[in-house]
Amino acid sequence: MSGLADRLADVRMSIADAATEAGREASEITTIVVTKFQPASLVAELAALGVLDVGENRHQEAQAKAAELEGLGVRWHFVGQLQSKKAKHVRAYATAIHSVDRAALVDALRSDEASVDCFVQVNLTDDPGRGGVAPEALEPLVERVLDTPGLTLLGLMAVAPLDEPARSAFARVRTLSERVQRLAPGASSLSMGMSHDFRDAILEGATHLRIGTAITGNRPVAG
Ligand SMILES: *Cc1c(COP(=O)(O)O)cnc(C)c1O
């Protein structure tokens, strides 16, 4: 019996519990298993367990795994900071890009080919190095995404800061989402919630969880 299957079952049960607590259906929540630093073989094991939504945060690693596992039906979610010069390459294999956070990246993702789903990432800290657009600059960036061919805006993405309870941080994202929906009524998805805070995220309306170590176990040391 694989530890992976056990951890996956445990997390799924916790997600179902939190959904019940929030008065929501667990079926409206997509769990993306973040497999950064893990070998492609682990992604193959996840696929065999029925997990097809997988998250990665580095282009080279994601591209290599996507190539190796072609044909398994894995949907690759790009969740890390993305350099504009790599944007076109990520488009080629990603089903969704969760980290759209500046105009130059939006422009680099422009395409006349099939549309890719995306989330605008908001920065909930005062540190510009953390990735994500500052809340004050949210609307112009959303408008730019809406005006750019080749991008379908699903909603907002955020990472909870370390120095604030996750629940109140996610509540702020929910408020920001109302601003976004005034410009884009369909863009109501919320990509938030990781191994240690997914319950809080579900209580604040998360539709896409990005869960790594709670399911995969500890990450191997970066190599
Ligand atoms: C690594 C990562 C996750 C998953 O983190 P865990 O704590 O392992 O669940 C989620 N989102 C992003 C953006 C990440 O880089």
UniProtKB/TrEMBL annotation:
* Keywords on record: Pyridoxal phosphate
Q: Which residues carry this modification: N6-(pyridoxal phosphate)lysine?
A: 36
Q: Which CDD domains match?
A: PLPDE_III_YBL036c_like
Q: Does the keyword Magnesium apply?
A: no
Which family, according to UniProt?
Answer: Belongs to the pyridoxal phosphate-binding protein YggS/PROSC family.
InterPro entries according to UniProt: Ala_racemase_N, PLP-binding_barrel, PyrdxlP_homeostasis
Source domain of life is Bacteria
**Which SUPFAM superfamilies does the record match to this protein?**
PLP-binding barrel
Q: Which organism is it from?
A: Agromyces neolithicus
Q: What does this protein do?
A: Pyridoxal 5'-phosphate (PLP)-binding protein, which is involved in PLP homeostasis.
Segments forming domain Alanine racemase N-terminal: 40-220
What's the protein called, per UniProt? Pyridoxal phosphate homeostasis protein
One Pfam match: Ala_racemase_N
